[in-house]
Design brief:
Radius of gyration: 19 Å
CATH class of the largest domain: Alpha Beta
Distance between the termini: 31 Å
Strand content: 15-25%
Structural class: alpha/beta
Low-confidence stretches: 312-334
Number of domains: 2
Number of strands: 15
Order of helices and strands: EHEHEHEHEHEEHEHHEEEEEHHEE
CATH topology of the largest domain: Dihydrodipicolinate Reductase, domain 2
Length: 334
Amino acid sequence: MAKQLGTKPRIGLLGTGPWAGRTHAPALAGHPGIEFSGVWGRRSEAAAALAAGSGTRAYDDVDALFEASDAVALALPPDVQAPLAVRAAEAGCHVLLDKPVATTVAGAREVADAVEAAGVASVVFCTLRFAEPTARWIEEQTAVGGWFLGEAHWLGSLYGTGSSSEYAASPWRREKGGLWDVGPHVLSVYLPVLGDVTEITAARGPADTHHLVLRHTSGASSTATLTLSAPPEASGAALTLYGTGGRVALPRWDGAVGAFGGAVDALIGSARTGEPDACDARFGLRLTEILTAAEEMTAEGTAAEGVLQDPSASDSPSHSASSARGYNRSGGVA
């Protein structure tokens, strides 16, 4: 049974890596409307250090943190996150997930099903859907409609020559590349504005680069080039829409801490009202389905094309083409 939120909901954090330390912990510690209930990590010494620096306590037992919390935020590798999110939901905790929810369709579906079975709220932190001014921009372009095509590139330099980013030590990013790390960001903009993906063509480029061509339920098409291996001199992200209203470009966005605070607010709102957020676990499942299709098409190193069937829960009003909320991250890591 889902936990009822008090005046100041208790929110715990699972994860102690750079992303948790730079974004989740500062946002939770600084949020005036919640109680930061504690930190759990796979390395107890890291959990203790992060908790001490954030004014909260560390937990060695994740189930004890679930018991002490109304909701939990997860900042873990996707396939570590998924089973723990299931356990959190089963304990009645509302869940604030990182993207991607999982790198397998089965794993993401288990999370979505557990969330729905427990009746808890869920939000997937797709940065651009919660950052400003991108969140507002996405809502505006969704309302405008009449889009003909979209063009996007996300050229991260995480693995480019000379990179010193601490995120480069992430094993799952090294294995899955830009398709899975920055692909969710692009899709989180395209899906509310252009509609769900019905057809996809995918091809590999240099290193981890993927090129996607998508067809959407609105009739529009879009492209995306995704990588974490661009030369630092060429890194950057951009998304442009073309349609009857002309040409519009995604604006630059503010840092991730503020965006994460917006995601916290969205989770609390969903938990209080019972209305699913547009970026909930079912939306996260759809992202995993699309990325898996692209990955499978390029597994042999050749371009491929396919039709994506409508997801089992695509008739949910929270995932319609009219749903919108905004996202964030430059350089390639979220």
